[in-house]
C-alpha cells in the first residue's frame, strides 16, 4: 500500500510540468503574435480601422471627333502631357503650400494671369505676423461693436498692403502662387490641371518625384484641334477651358449629369448642340482614404469611353472653295466701287432632296491692327435676316395660283402704277402684256403687285386708293411659310433666327412690297430651304448639319460603327398642285438659260449642268455698322441687297443654293451672280473629281467665268 502511494506522488508532478510547459508555449506564441500585430502590421491595421470610402470620382475622357461627309477630320484631339493635382478632404493650406513649393522647383509655370488680390492673399500667407499687425485696435473695436463684419475687416487688411510690400514677392514666389491658385481652384477629390503641354523633361522629373508630391499626378490630357483653321469655326462652335469649366447659366444642368465643375463642355453651336454625344462616358474611380484624407487605395470601377464621333453633311473641300470665292468676289466688288457699305456675303448649298447642308459659308469684313481683314461669319446664314427682293417671286406666283387670283399662263400688263399720294411703283423696265413665265424670267414687279392685289380682291385704279386688310398680309405670309420663309427652318443648331415681319398697320401698299421681297426679312438659310422646296416638287425638307453618329475607335484610320443615322425629315408638303410647281420651275429655268433671263448675262450663260433659279434685288434700309449715322447720310431706302437662288440639274436637282450680298450702293453690281456661278461650277467640278477618286482641292473657275 505504501509503495503505491509513493509511486503516485512521483507521477503527478510530471503531468503538471507538461501542463506548465504547454501553457508556456501558448503564452509565448500569443506574445509573439501580439508583437507581430503591434510592431510589424500595426500601422496597416490602424489605417484599415480608420479607412473610409469616398464618393466615386469621374475623370474626363477624350472628346468625340468631328468629320465631314467624306470622313475628313474637321475637329480632332491633340494629346498633351499634363500635370494635375487632386486635393484630398481635410488637407491644410500649409500642406498645399509646401507641395506647391516643391512642384515650383520642377515646373516652369506662367504667372501673367495672377491678380493683385491673389498676390495680396499670398503675401498675408507668407507674412502672418506683419499681416496681423495691419489690423489696428480700432479695427478690433469696430468689429466688436459690430460696426464692421469679418469681410470688411479682411478688406481693411488687404487695403493696407503696399505696392512695395507686394514687390517683395520674388519670381519664385509668384510661380508658387500660380501653382497654389490652381491647386485650390476646384473641389476636393476633383483633379485640377496645374500645367498642360509640359515638356518631356518636366513630365519625367515630376513623375520621378510623385512620392514626395502628395495629390500630384502625371497624365495625358487633350486640346481641340481644328484641321481647317478658322474655316467654319463659328458653326463648329467652341469648348470651354478647364479654367472656365461649366458655364454658370447651365451649371445645375451639367452637375446632375455627373460633370465636374471644371469639366470642359461645348459652349456654342455644334459643340454645344451635341454635347451629350461628344462628351463620352467618364472613367469611374473610387478613392479609399483614411480619416485624415490621405489616399490609401485607388480602385478603377470603369475605364470610360471616348465621346462618340460626328459625321457632318458638310463637304469641307467644297466649303473651302466657297469661302475662297466669297472672299475674292467681296474684294472685287469693293474695288469696282458702289460697295462702300457692303461688309458681308453669304452662301448656303444643300441637297434639295434630303435637306443635307453641303456648304454653309459667310464672310464679313473686319479690322485688326488698323488693317482690313475678312472673318468667318457662317453663323450669319441662320442668325441674320435681310429683305431678299425678287428671289421670293416664285412663292408669290404660286400663292396667286393657289388662291385662284391668277392662272398658269395668265397675261397681265406690266405698266407703271400710281396710287393716290404715293410715288410711282414699277418694274425695272416696262414690259407690257406678259405672262407668268416672262414675269419670272425678266423679274416683273408689276406682275407681282397686281397678283397681290388680286389675292386681296382689289383692282388697280390709277390714282385710286388701295384697300388692303391685315388678313391679306396673313394670307401671303401663310403660303410663304410653307416654303420656309419667315419661320424657323428646323436646322439642328441653336439660336436660329426666324426673320422679322414688317409692320403693315396703316400701310396697305406694303402688301405690294411684300410680294416682291421688300418688306419682311428672311435668312440666307430660309432662302435656300425655299428654293429647295420648289426644286424637289413641293417638299419642305428640314436642313441637317449632322449626318450620323459613330462609335469611337482606337485606330485613327478606322471608322467606328454607326450608332445613329439622321434620316431626312419632311416638315410639310406645300398645299399646291404639281402643275403649279412645274410651271414655276419652268420659269426659273428660263431665268438662267435664256438670253432675256435676269440670271443669264454675267451669270449662268453657257453652264452645262442645266441650272434654274431666280435673281433678286431689294431696295432696303441699311442696317449694318453705324446704321444711324449712315442712314442720316444716305437716306432710309437707298441701299440694295443683291440675292440669288438656284438649283441644278433642273431635270433632277441634286444641289440648291442661296447667295445673299447686302448693302450695296447700286443695283447693277453682278457680285451675287458671279458668286452663284462660281460656286455651282465648283460643285460640279468637285463632283467630277470625286467620281475619279480624287477628293482633294479643285481648280479655280474664276478665269473661265470672267471670259464668258
UniProtKB/TrEMBL annotation:
**Residues covered by the HTH cro/C1-type domain:** 97-114
UniProt-annotated location(s): Cell membrane; Membrane
Keyword Zinc-finger listed: no
Membrane topology type, per the record? Single-pass membrane protein
Q: Which PROSITE patterns match?
A: HTH_CROC1
Which E.C. number(s) belong to this protein? 3.4.16.4
- One Pfam assignment: Transpeptidase
UniProt-listed InterPro entries: Beta-lactam/transpept, Beta-lactam/transpept-like, Cro/C1-type_HTH, PBP_dimer, PBP_dimer_sf, PCN-bd_Tpept
Keywords, ordered alphabetically: Cell membrane, Cell shape, Cell wall biogenesis/degradation, Membrane, Peptidoglycan synthesis, Transmembrane, Transmembrane helix
Q: What class of enzyme is it?
A: hydrolase
Q: Which reaction does it catalyse?
A: Preferential cleavage: (Ac)2-L-Lys-D-Ala-|-D-Ala. Also transpeptidation of peptidyl-alanyl moieties that are N-acyl substituents of D-alanine
What is this protein called in UniProt? serine-type D-Ala-D-Ala carboxypeptidase
Q: Which family does it belong to?
A: Belongs to the transpeptidase family.
Amino acid at each position: 500500500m505504501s509503495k503505491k502511494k509513493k509511486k503516485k506522488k512521483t507521477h503527478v508532478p510530471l503531468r503538471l510540468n507538461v501542463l506548465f510547459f504547454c501553457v508556456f508555449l501558448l503564452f509565448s506564441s500569443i506574445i509573439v503574435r501580439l508583437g507581430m500585430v503591434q510592431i510589424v502590421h500595426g500601422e496597416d491595421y490602424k489605417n484599415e480601422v480608420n479607412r473610409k470610402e469616398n464618393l466615386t470620382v469621374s475623370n474626363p475622357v477624350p472628346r468625340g471627333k468631328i468629320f465631314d461627309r467624306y470622313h475628313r477630320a474637321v475637329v480632332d484631339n491633340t494629346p498633351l502631357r499634363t500635370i494635375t493635382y487632386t486635393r484630398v478632404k481635410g488637407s491644410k493650406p500649409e500642406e498645399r503650400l509646401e507641395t506647391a513649393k516643391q512642384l515650383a522647383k520642377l515646373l516652369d509655370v506662367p504667372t501673367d494671369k495672377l491678380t493683385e488680390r491673389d498676390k495680396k492673399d499670398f503675401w498675408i500667407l507668407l507674412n502672418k505676423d506683419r499681416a496681423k499687425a495691419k489690423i489696428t485696435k480700432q479695427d478690433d473695436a469696430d468689429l466688436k461693436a459690430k460696426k464692421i463684419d469679418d469681410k470688411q475687416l479682411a478688406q481693411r487688411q488687404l487695403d493696407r498692403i503696399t505696392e512695395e510690400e507686394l514687390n517683395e514677392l520674388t519670381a519664385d514666389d509668384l510661380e508658387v502662387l500660380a501653382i497654389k491658385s490652381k491647386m485650390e481652384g476646384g473641389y476636393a477629390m476633383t483633379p485640377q490641371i496645374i500645367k498642360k503641354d509640359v515638356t518631356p523633361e518636366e513630365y519625367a522629373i515630376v513623375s520621378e518625384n510623385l512620392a514626395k508630391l502628395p495629390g500630384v499626378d502625371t497624365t495625358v490630357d487633350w486640346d481641340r484641334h481644328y484641321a481647317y483653321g478658322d474655316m467654319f469655326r463659328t458653326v463648329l462652335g467652341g469648348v470651354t477651358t478647364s479654367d472656365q469649366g461649366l458655364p454658370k447659366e447651365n451649371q445645375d444642368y451639367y452637375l446632375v449629369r455627373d460633370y465636374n465643375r471644371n469639366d470642359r463642355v461645348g459652349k456654342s453651336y455644334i459643340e454645344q448642340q451635341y454635347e451629350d454625344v461628344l462628351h463620352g462616358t467618364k472613367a469611374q474611380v473610387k478613392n479609399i482614404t483614411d480619416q485624415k484624407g490621405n489616399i490609401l487605395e485607388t480602385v478603377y470601377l470603369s475605364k470610360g469611353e471616348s465621346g462618340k464621333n460626328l459625321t457632318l453633311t458638310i463637304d469641307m473641300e467644297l466649303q473651302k472653295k466657297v469661302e475662297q470665292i466669297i472672299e475674292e468676289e467681296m474684294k472685287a466688288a469693293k474695288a469696282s466701287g458702289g460697295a462702300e457699305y457692303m461688309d458681308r456675303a453669304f452662301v448656303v448649298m444643300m441637297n434639295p432632296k434630303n435637306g443635307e447642308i453641303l456648304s454653309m459659308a459667310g464672310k464679313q469684313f473686319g479690322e485688326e491692327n488698323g488693317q482690313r481683314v475678312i472673318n468667318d461669319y457662317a453663323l450669319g446664314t441662320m442668325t441674320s435676316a435681310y429683305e431678299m427682293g425678287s428671289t421670293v417671286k416664285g412663292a408669290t406666283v404660286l400663292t396667286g395660283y393657289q388662291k385662284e387670283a391668277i392662272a398658269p399662263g395668265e397675261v397681265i400688263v406690266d405698266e407703271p402704277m400710281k396710287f393716290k399720294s404715293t410715288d410711282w411703283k414699277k418694274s425695272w423696265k416696262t414690259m407690257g402684256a406678259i405672262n407668268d413665265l416672262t414675269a419670272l424670267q425678266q423679274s416683273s414687279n408689276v406682275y407681282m403687285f397686281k397678283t397681290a392685289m388680286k389675292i386681296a380682291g382689289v383692282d388697280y385704279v390709277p390714282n385710286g386708293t388701295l384697300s388692303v386688310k391685315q388678313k391679306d398680309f396673313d394670307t401671303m405670309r401663310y403660303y410663304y411659310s410653307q416654303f420656309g420663309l419667315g419661320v424657323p427652318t428646323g436646322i439642328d443648331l441653336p439660336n436660329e433666327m426666324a426673320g422679322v415681319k414688317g409692320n403693315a398697320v396703316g400701310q396697305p401698299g406694303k402688301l405690294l412690297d411684300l410680294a416682291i421681297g421688300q418688306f419682311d426679312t428672311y435668312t440666307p438659310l430660309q432662302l435656300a430651304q425655299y428654293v429647295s422646296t420648289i426644286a424637289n416638287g413641293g417638299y419642305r425638307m428640314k436642313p441637317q448639319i449632322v449626318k450620323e453618329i459613330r462609335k469611337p475607335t482606337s485606330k485613327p484610320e478606322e471608322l467606328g460603327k454607326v450608332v445613329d443615322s439622321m434620316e431626312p425629315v419632311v416638315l410639310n408638303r406645300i398645299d399646291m398642285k404639281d402643275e403649279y410647281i412645274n410651271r414655276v420651275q419652268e420659269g426659273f429655268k428660263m431665268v438662267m438659260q435664256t438670253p432675256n433671263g435676269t440670271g443669264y448675262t454675267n451669270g449662268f450663260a453657257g453652264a452645262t449642268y442645266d441650272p434654274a433659279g431666280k435673281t433678286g434685288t431689294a431696295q432696303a434700309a441699311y442696317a449694318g455698322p453705324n446704321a444711324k449715322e449712315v442712314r442720316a447720310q444716305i437716306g432710309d431706302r437707298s441701299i440694295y441687297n443683291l440675292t440669288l437662288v438656284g438649283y441644278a440639274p433642273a431635270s433632277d436637282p441634286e444641289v440648291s443654293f442661296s447667295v445673299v450680298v447686302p448693302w450695296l450702293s447700286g443695283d447693277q453690281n453682278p457680285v451675287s451672280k458671279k458668286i452663284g456661278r462660281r460656286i455651282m461650277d465648283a460643285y460640279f467640278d468637285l463632283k467630277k473629281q470625286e467620281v475619279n477618286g480624287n477628293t482633294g482641292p479643285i481648280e479655280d473657275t474664276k478665269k473661265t467665268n470672267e471670259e464668258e
